[in-house]
């Protein structure tokens, strides 16, 4: 572990908001992602968690340059790819792939499974050993699909199988990094475990790095090595999984963890629970100072004026809070 | 837990929908009951029939397009009424009064064109005499009760001006405005963020005590079930496969599906680096249900049942404990082994 | 809201200016010379030049446009000296073919077109929306099938066929129309019965195609709205089917129809060319057709085109305001 596979330095993605219509004016910016640092190594999984509007999905997409970053740097394998043109990005594209949340919407319904999975080869202009068809069938088999179904269409598959199609397509070019955006949250509970296991097996096999974007903390806890907790575009806490889940230091992380229901009646009913007041503020108009101050039970005047910087508080453990938990 | 007479008693309820591809047997042979003050959780995956059953109780299926048989009694003060066979007009007048329902997606469950107040007053004035002023006063009271800040001001606002969590509060206020005896909550927190989810679950529990309601909570989230349920029905492919107290289901699960399900979910409170124990395969089509046990194709214990029984005979919901039922042919001795085996893989 | 209105209003003015400029520009570059066309039989270059001057075409096009806009606000004189003709504001121009100010030509034709459009509008809205609701409520039953047939006939039968058919086989055959007085304009204030008789068949013909597409649109809107979550909520509250339909379903299903109806109505105010032609109605449509095909009467063509565009642009504004009134989600934005 000498050089990180991917490194983000102060990544920001801001979206302008407009008044709409033909004579629209820019009214302000949504700071969807407002400064994310990250280092990921081959074979590692980093979980990106947070509630809706925290910027985790935008962050995932900006990493793959599906959005142009507003500020900051993306360094892949030592190369700065932040400002590369789409053409120059092409050789990197095959090394970084995405798996989407909705296996229903992310597959073109008019294409057969075979052509869906073969698409990456055609786009990159490579012919795998033994020909495309043989390779597609090998991939289908690898992700647990019946290779005989190569000429079927996405609607003939169940949700779990469709997500397997998405996985097969993502691993076709043997990428080094996969950004998985809520890959199991649309699936039924008994199917989720199948897909999570598949992702873990593939990671062992190909030594891929995963950035696992999800709101379900139980799944993130299971699959990740490190976890980044986001809130309104900002990183609140970042730590190795064990540290973060056994000893959260940021009040938001603590509240978030305590809110996750536990499938055990005795623990579930007696566990200490921090119920946060109110809703997430609008990302268009985030609170001044610490973005979490409106819902934080420890907030003081300082939190309302001064933005807490992300600071080291232990080995590989960083938080952005003026008054961390003990 | 309460020992009083159940408020809702469902007996042998079947719901099926004729389609071009065949008859979809959405739920079959459903029997359960729930008393006031009691919380029954119905847990299952999509297509397991958990919502279909409740919609049948509410009389919300179109009687032209759904084939419904069986009985569902509401034990009202005036005497029991079977909502399945009763006249549509009779059932309508029970909706919102004796029984209420809230739904998964609070973003789309409120009418976008009418103010919150308008929609609450509409529900109130169905069953109350009084002026629009009285209605509005009551609406503000209810909004206040469910924790909407500045209720008297927000009552005139429209749904799109509320966040998801606030809209679900509004839905709850609307469902409870006529003081119902039964509340059916269909995935009430699934569309919400986890910190908001815990607020809403707490609110639902508080309201249940406040109004002494029977509560049916439909969810796929076994964590939510563990936190709120007194009793649990586990559904699979349109049938109740296991039913019991929360402790029965979580600590002494009897059906291989329930055992598998509980072991397949990762837990936020347990740091384990082991593989998840997945249930192989996927649920059967509700049109072409297999003969015998619907779970057989995914069940690794089917071959331990003598005489190929799982493939030929649909198991009945048999009593396993005081208030614990399971739909499985597996003998008790094998069950204990199965529990240990699956649990041990973690 | 006021802010929104002001913004929309200024945008509308900009659009209108651009529309009028482009209409003006298009006709200015056409390879035809109105000065030569109005010249008559004994035509010498000197006469053409004199005409050109009289018509105001001897100056650059932007100056012509400037004069045109000025005329709209303060009126305008055409020609010089004793032969000069004065058109009061708003002056759209002077028709040398018909020897009248274009504004008075329009003033004569507009009530005819307005009568035609208004009656047809009432008819197609009531039939189309009504039938659409019934078809949606009785889905796959006989009223729905009947509506489907109506939609098929209405949308596939062109107006020039249905118009002539009704004229020949109903109107004239049963002596409901007096062929000598076909299309005679009578003010509804002067003689409502005669007015009604003049317009009843044109209304039916014009409304037919619209009613068919409105039936289809309403039907699909009502069906779509009926499956919305908030309709299920309304049912769960215990509301009767009647209240659910009237208050909850229709409110949401009708809003998009308002948009469509406003724009369709505005489109008709520019003139229903085919219907006016068949029934000999002296409306804006026939005024335009005659100006284009017979007279090559440039000022009239420019005026009717700009007028038609104005109706559509203004209707767009009104429709958006109406929509904001109907849908609170638009109001705040």
Per DSSP, what share of the residues of chain C sits in E-state strands of 2 or more residues? under 5%
Oligomer: heterotrimer
Helix amount of chain C: over 70%
Determine the mean pLDDT of chain B. 92
Compute the gyration radius of chain C: what is it?
24 Å
User: Would you list the SSEs of chain B in sequence order as H and E?
Assistant: EEEHEEHEHHHHEHEHEEHHHEEH
What would a concise description of this structure say?
The complex is a heterotrimer of chains A (326), B (346) and C (333). Chain A is α/β, with parallel strands linked by helices and 326 residues long.
Q: What does this protein look like?
A:
The complex is a heterotrimer of chains A (326), B (346) and C (333). Chain A is of the alpha/beta class and 326 residues long. Chain A is built from 11 helices and 12 strands. In chain A, α3 (113-124) runs parallel beside α5 and α4 (132-142) crosses α5. The mean pLDDT of chain A is 91. Chain B is an alpha/beta fold and 346 residues long. The radius of gyration of chain B is 21 Å and the shape is globular. The model of chain B has no long low-confidence stretch (mean pLDDT 92). In chain B, β4 and β5 form a beta hairpin. Among the domains of chain B are: 108-179, no CATH class; 253-344, no CATH class. Chain C folds into 2 domains: 2-102, no CATH class; 107-298 and 311-332, MetI-like fold, CATH 1.10.3720.10. Chain C is built from 14 helices and 4 strands. In chain C, α5 packs across α12. The model of chain C has no long low-confidence stretch (mean pLDDT 87).
């Amino acid at each position: 572990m000498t050089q990180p596979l991917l490194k983000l330095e102060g990544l920001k993605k801001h979206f302008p908001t407009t008044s709409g219509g033909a004579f629209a004016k820019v009214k302000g910016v949504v700071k969807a992602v407002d400064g994310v640092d990250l280092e990921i190594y081959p074979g590692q999984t980093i979980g990106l968690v947070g509630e809706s509007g925290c910027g985790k999905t935008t962050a995932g997409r900006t990493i793959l340059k599906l959005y142009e970053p507003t500020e900051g740097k993306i360094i892949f394998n030592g190369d700065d790819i932040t400002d590369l043109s789409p053409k120059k990005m092409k050789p990197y594209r095959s090394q970084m792939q995405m798996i989407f949340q909705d296996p229903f919407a992310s597959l073109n319904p008019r294409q057969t499974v075979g052509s869906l999975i073969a698409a990456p080869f055609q786009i990159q202009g490579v012919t795998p050993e033994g020909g495309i068809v043989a390779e597609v069938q090998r991939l289908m088999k690898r992700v647990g699909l019946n290779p005989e179904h190569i000429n079927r269409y996405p609607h003939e598959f169940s949700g779990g199988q469709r997500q397997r199609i998405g996985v097969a397509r993502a691993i076709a070019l043997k990428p080094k990094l996969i950004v998985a955006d809520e890959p199991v949250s649309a699936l039924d509970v008994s199917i989720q475990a199948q897909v999570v296991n598949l992702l873990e097996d593939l990671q062992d096999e190909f030594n891929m790095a995963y950035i696992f974007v999800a709101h379900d903390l139980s799944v993130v806890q299971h699959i990740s090595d490190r976890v980044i907790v986001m809130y309104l575009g900002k990183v609140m806490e970042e730590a190795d999984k064990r540290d973060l889940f056994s000893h959260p230091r940021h009040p938001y992380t603590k509240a978030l963890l305590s809110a996750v229901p536990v499938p055990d009646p005795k623990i579930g009913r007696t566990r200490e629970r921090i119920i946060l007041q109110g809703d997430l503020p609008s990302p268009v108009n985030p609170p001044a100072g610490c973005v979490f101050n409106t819902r934080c039970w420890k907030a003081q005047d300082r939190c309302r004026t001064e933005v807490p910087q992300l600071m080291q508080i232990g080995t590989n453990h960083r938080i952005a809070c003026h008054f961390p938990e003990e | 837990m309460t020992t009083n007479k159940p408020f809702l008693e469902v007996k042998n309820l079947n719901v099926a929908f004729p389609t071009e591809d065949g008859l979809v047997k959405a739920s079959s042979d459903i029997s359960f009951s729930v008393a006031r003050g009691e919380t029954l959780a119905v847990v299952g995956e999509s297509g397991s029939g958990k919502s279909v059953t409740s919609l049948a109780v509410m009389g919300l299926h179109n009687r032209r397009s759904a084939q419904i048989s069986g009985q569902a009694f509401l034990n009202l003060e005036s005497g029991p009424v079977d909502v399945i066979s009763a006249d549509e007009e009779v059932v309508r007048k029970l909706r919102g009064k004796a029984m209420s329902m809230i739904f998964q997606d609070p973003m789309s469950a409120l009418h976008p064109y009418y103010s919150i107040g308008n929609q609450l007053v509409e529900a109130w004035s169905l069953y109350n005499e009084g002026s629009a002023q009285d209605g509005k006063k009551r609406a503000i009271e209810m909004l206040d009760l469910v924790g909407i800040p500045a209720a008297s001001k927000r009552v005139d606002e429209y749904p799109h001006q509320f966040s998801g969590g606030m809209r679900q509060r509004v839905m709850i206020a609307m469902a409870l405005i006529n003081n119902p005896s039964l509340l059916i909550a269909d995935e009430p927190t699934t569309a919400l963020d986890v910190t908001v989810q815990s607020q809403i679950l707490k609110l639902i529990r508080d309201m249940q005590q406040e109004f002494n309601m029977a509560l049916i909570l439909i969810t796929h989230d076994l964590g939510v079930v563990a936190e709120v349920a007194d009793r649990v029905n586990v559904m699979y492919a349109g049938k109740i496969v296991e039913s019991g107290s929360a402790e029965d289901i979580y600590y002494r699960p009897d059906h291989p599906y329930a055992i598998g399900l509980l072991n397949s979910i990762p837990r936020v409170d347990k740091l384990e680096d082991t593989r998840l124990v997945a249930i192989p395969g996927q649920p059967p089509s509700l049109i072409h249900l297999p003969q015998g046990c619907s779970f057989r194709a995914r069940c690794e214990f089917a071959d331990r049942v003598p005489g190929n029984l799982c493939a030929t005979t649909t198991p009945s919901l048999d009593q396993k404990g005081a208030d614990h039922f399971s739909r499985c042919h597996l003998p008790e001795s094998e069950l204990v082994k199965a529990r240990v085996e699956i649990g041990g893989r973690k | 809201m006021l802010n929104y209105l002001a913004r929309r209003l200024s945008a509308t003015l900009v659009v209108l200016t651009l529309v009028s400029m482009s209409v003006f520009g298009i006709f200015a570059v056409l390879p035809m010379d109105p000065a030569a066309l109005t010249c008559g039989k004994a035509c010498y270059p000197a006469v053409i030049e004199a005409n050109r001057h009289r018509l105001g075409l001897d100056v650059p096009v932007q100056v012509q446009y400037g004069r045109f806009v000025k005329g709209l606000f303060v009126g305008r004189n055409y020609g010089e000296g004793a032969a000069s003709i004065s058109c009061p504001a708003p002056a759209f121009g002077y028709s040398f073919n018909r020897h009248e100010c274009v504004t008075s030509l329009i003033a004569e034709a507009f009530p005819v077109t307005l009568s035609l459009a208004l009656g047809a509008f009432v008819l197609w809205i009531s039939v189309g929306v009504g039938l659409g609701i019934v078809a949606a409520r009785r889905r796959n039953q006989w009223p729905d099938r009947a509506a489907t047939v109506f939609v098929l006939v209405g949308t596939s039968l062109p107006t020039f066929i249905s118009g002539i058919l009704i004229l020949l086989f109903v109107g004239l055959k049963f002596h409901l129309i007096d062929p000598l007085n076909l299309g005679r304009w009578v003010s509804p204030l002067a003689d409502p019965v005669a007015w009604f008789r003049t317009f009843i068949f044109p209304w039916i013909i014009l409304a037919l195609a619209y009613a068919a597409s409105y039936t289809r649109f309403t039907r699909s809107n009502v069906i779509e709205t009926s499956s919305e979550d908030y309709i299920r909520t309304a049912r769960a509250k215990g509301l009767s089917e009647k209240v659910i339909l009237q208050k909850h379903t229709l409110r949401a299903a009708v809003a998009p129809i308002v948009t469509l109806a406003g724009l369709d109505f505005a489109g008709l105010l520019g003139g229903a060319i085919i219907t006016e032609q068949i029934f000999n109605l002296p409306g804006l449509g026939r005024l335009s057709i005659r100006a284009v095909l017979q007279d090559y009467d440039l000022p009239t063509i420019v005026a009717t085109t700009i007028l038609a565009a104005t109706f559509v642009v203004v209707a767009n504004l009104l429709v958006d305001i109406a929509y904001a009134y109907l849908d609170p989600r638009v109001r705040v934005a």
